[in-house]
Amino acid sequence: MNKKIRVLIGEEEVSQRIQEIGAKISADYKGRTVHIICVLKGGVYFACELSRYITVPVTIDFMSVSSYGDDIQSSGVVRIVKDLDQPLEGKDVLVVEDIIDSGRTLSYLLEILKGRRPASLRLCTLLDKPDRRVRKVSVDYTCFEIPDEFVVGFGLDYAQQYRNLPFIGVVEI
Ligand code: IMP
Ligand code: MG
User: Residue 78 — pLDDT band, cuts 50, 70, 90?
Assistant: First the structure.
C-alpha cells in the first residue's frame, strides 16, 4: 500500500513545538517527578521525544487501550490491551497521547487512572481534533489543534503504517 501523503505540519515545526511544551511541563512540575504514561502505540514517538525536553525527573510506564480497528472509523469500543506495570498512588501522572479525536479513549482511560489515586493527573497530547469530540476531555497540554482530517506520522498510523514519518501528514484517499 502506497498512499499519497501531504505534509500538514513539518518536521521542524513539530520538533520546535515539542521542545516548547517540554519546557512548559518542566516549569509546571518544578521540584516534582513527572510519571509519564505513554499510551501505545501511537503515543510512543511523542512520549520519547517530549521526555527528552523535560528537565525535572521523569519516570515512564506504558499502557495500551484500543478503540480503533485497522480502518479510520471509531468502533466506540474501548478495551485495555496492556495495563501499567507500576501503581500510580501518590504520583504526578502525565498521560501522553498521540491524538484526541472523539475523546472516547481518553475519557474512559482517565476515569480508570483517577481510581488509582495519583497525586495529580494531567493530559498532554500531540494533536487535538476538537471538531470531532463526542466526550468531554480536559486537555492540559496540546501541541497542535488540527482540522478534521485523518493524519499519520509521528506515531500515528493508517492500518499500522506510517508511524515512523518524522512529520504529520494527511493521507490522500
Ligand atoms: P478517540 O477515542 O476517538 O479520541 O480516538 C483516539 C485514537 O484514535 C487515537 O489514539 C488514535 O489511535 C486514533 N486516531 C484518531 N484520529 C486519528 C488520525 O487522524 N490518524 C490516526 N489515528 C487516529
Ligand atoms: Mg492513541
Answer: confident
CA of 3 to the centre of ligand 1 (A): 19
pLDDT of residue 71: 52
**What are the tens digits of pLDDT across the range 109-150?**
999 999 999 999 999 999 999 999 998 999 999 999 999 999
Q: Which of 92, 98, 101, 128 is catalytic?
A: 101
Q: 71 catalytic, yes or no?
A: no
Is 89 inside a domain boundary? yes
Q: Which domain holds residue 76?
A: 12-151
**What would the DSSP string read from start to end of the chain?**
---EEEEEE-HHHHHHHHHHHHHHHHHHTTTS-EEEEEEETTHHHHHHHHHTT--S-EEEEEEEEEEE-SSSSEEEEEEEEE--SS--TT-EEEEEEEEESSSHHHHHHHHHHHTT--SEEEEEEEEE-GGG-SS----SEEEEE--S--EEBTTB-BTTB-TT-SSEEEEE-
Q: pTM to 2 decimals? A: 0.93
Domains held by the chain: number: 1
